[in-house]
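Input sequence (488 aa), recorded before submission:
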Amino acid sequence: MNVENFGASERLVNAAYVRQGAQGRRAHELRLRALLEQGKCPEDGWDESTIELFLHELAIMDSNNFLGNCGVGEREGRVASGLVARRHYRLIHGIGRSGDISAVQPKAAGSSLLNKLTNSIVLDIIKLAGVRTVTNCFVVPMATGMSLTLCFLTLRNKRPKAKYIIWPRIDQKSCFKSMITAGFEPVVIENVLEGDELRTDVKAVEAKIQDLGAENVLCVHSTTSCFAPRVPDRLEELAVICSNYNIPHIVNNAYGVQSSKCMHLIQQGARVGRIDAFIQSLDKNFMVPVGGAIIAGFNDSFIQDISKMYPGRASASPSLDVLITLLSLGESGYRQLLKERKEMFSYLSSQLRKLAEVYNERLLNTPHNPISLAMSLENLDKHSDMAVTQLGSMLFTRQVSGARVVPLGSLQTVNDYTFKGFMSHTNNYPCAYLNAASAIGMKKQDVDLFLKRLDKCMKTFKKEKSNGKDVPEVGNCTKHTSAGEAED
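Predicted structure, token format:
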């Protein structure tokens, strides 16, 4: 409805009522105008009617929704199912063009605008979360592992002689496979044990660069968010090394946006040394469906090079999901989620420590990990060889997801490389343990229910031990060593 249409409406409805309706419409339009002019996440979240109005306005800017459009090409936004069309708000053309995922599509102005706005709003949120000097980012419709691969492939053109990626060990398959898929040879740097924590062996990283030759190293591939007792890499020291040897530095920040500590590490690393790009998952940080990531960095040119490396157009679904979510939350809503996550971490930590003490276990001391916690299972492991994996199976069958039990001495081969002590991030961690994490969106009732079910499982083991019996096997214990897989 424009001014002329509202004027025409006064012929049918009382003019005062029409003007009131026009004022209501104007309130929505003022929000849209502010978003388009500023390109930032609104301070307060929008209601669903405003968001849907905006999406419908974008959709009718795409050629497939033009009245009387005649498409004679192979990609004209044709959709067989009305349900599918409505699911995507009739934004069918996707994002980007064949040569650049960030490019504008001539016949899809609405989808192109959605893409540009989403990238701008996400950049604003990354700054809000703590990386103030980030200059550019884009949403890519791939999860973290494949997004890392895209970064490595982009670096190949800049460092054609390089064949190695130096990688402080993190026992997550997708991180390792991202390097293999890109055609490079991972050089695994084992972590060092400091108290209970597994920390970056910075000296070993520098020694390996000297041994291989800096020109033969594609990059250092470091990690922030991770499962305790591993803690975020020493990003500042690694960034300085990369700067000194003129080696690129790619950071896997999979679920680090929700942590001010992880974001501070990235900001400081970029300030004192070199960080070329950092990659984060959409679903882990913004509570949207799996399938998207954000590639961000401090050099516009390099981030643009990565976007141009993506072959072909791309799905707009991840961009649409995160745009809707951030418009719904607003900056204030996202800040509140970050605040609640910190509170839940403290609560989970205190309650898990109390439970551990009841069963003569302990909460491992990992102060440098701001998201994940680990509780020892030393006495459980002494009970029987299968007790730790049985605990994982029992939690799984009791609908506890995300918790991981880590037995001693597990072997895992990934692309012909065998990891000893897999899932523990080191060859010989001193004890078996259980992981739990306080991630964004967790509620107090989640923590309480998890602890209640864990307590019941531990009581079962304690009772059977006092009777001199093994706990009966529950389900496939070797399969369910964790109630949640080790993901990106």
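Checked by second reader. The first helix runs from residue 3 to 9.
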